[in-house]
Structure formats: C-alpha cells, structure tokens
Specification:
This protein has one domain. Helices cover 45% and strands 20% of the residues. The chain contains five helices and three strands. The chain has a three-stranded mixed beta sheet with strand order 1-2-3.
C-alpha cells in the first residue's frame, strides 16, 4: 500500500510541480505546488522549507536536485505558489 501511495504522489507531483528561476538578486526560485500541499502542510513539516524538503525526493530527479540546491543555499530565496484545484469529475462508460 505504501508503494502505491508513493507512486501516486510521484505522479501527481510530476504533473503539477513547476520550478522557475526568477531573474533577481539574490537569486530566487519560484516553486508551484498543488494546493493540497498547503492544506496538508502540517502533515509534511512544521514550516515551508521542511515541507519542500519532504516533497523534494518525490519529484523527478532534475527538479529534486534544483530544489535541494536552492534550499541548501541560504542566499537563494524560495517563493511558493499553489495551483488551483479542480473538482471536475470525469465519467467513463465501460459497456
């Protein structure tokens, strides 16, 4: 069950997390996360940086490495945005 939950988390994060280096001094990384991570932030860490560290290993390797580097550099700012959630339901017929 844990493997299935991790696989689903990876799929959701792969589809929704975006990283963007902003042209700023000092450098800033804009991280876009699914809004569900805001709702459950207390489950992932006591502050935003801990939440990002918890999510990082579930991201694709390139994104994980970029996020880890930004979090490790005290001069590198991190800005977080959240995507809106869609409650649209898709019905399929299997007849």
């Amino acid at each position: 069950m844990h493997a299935q939950l991790e696989a689903n988390a990876r799929a959701v994060l792969r589809a929704s997390v975006r990283l963007e280096q902003l042209a700023a001094s000092p450098p800033r990384l804009r991280v876009t996360l699914p809004v569900q991570l805001l709702w459950h932030q207390a489950d992932l860490g006591t502050d935003l940086r801990r939440t990002l560290r918890a999510v990082g290993p579930l991201l694709p390797a390139a994104l994980s490495t970029e996020l880890a580097a930004a979090l490790a550099d005290p001069l590198h700012g991190v800005e977080v945005r959240y995507t809106n959630s869609s409650w649209q339901i898709e019905f399929r017929s299997y007849t």
